[in-house]
Amino acid sequence: MAKASENLADTPVCLELSKVLADSYNLYLKTHGYHWNVRGPQFNSLHTMFMTQYTEMWTALDEIAERIRALGELAPMSGSAFGNLSSIKEGDATNSANAMLKELADGHKTLIATLKNALKVADDAGDDPTVDLLTTRLAAHEKFLWMISATLED
């Protein structure tokens, strides 16, 4: 079993997991920042929804980084490393609540695409534990996207 993990560390799986970690971290930061800065008539419900989402994402960050380590690689840990790996832009605290929701929806869409790509790479490598982790993350972000999208509907 240890041999399989050593082999996986030499595949693109860790690079894809690092991209998932970076996108997840940037989306976590944006969600937490919007939790702090949301304003308007939906304040209470959005403040609560954002807290639920960023709390779940925070726990997942550790799981993703630990999987990278279990595969024998170092997990990225700096802002510059995340900036180089992530496709998710920083948030803007001056945004309206609706603009915050739209940006978070876009962030989840981006992360879902990153997760699907990583899932394919992990599946092709026969890395079932990573596939399981990524499938769980995919389901979480699809649910978060649904919740945000439902909030944006008239």
TrEMBL record:
InterPro entries: DPS_DNA-bd, DPS_DNA-bd_CS, Ferritin-like, Ferritin-like_SF, Ferritin_DPS_dom. Pfam families: Ferritin. Residues 17-153 form the Ferritin/DPS domain. SUPFAM superfamilies: Ferritin-like. It comes from the Bacteria. Gene3D superfamilies: 1.20.1260.10. Belongs to the Dps family. This is DNA starvation/stationary phase protection protein. It comes from Asticcacaulis aquaticus.
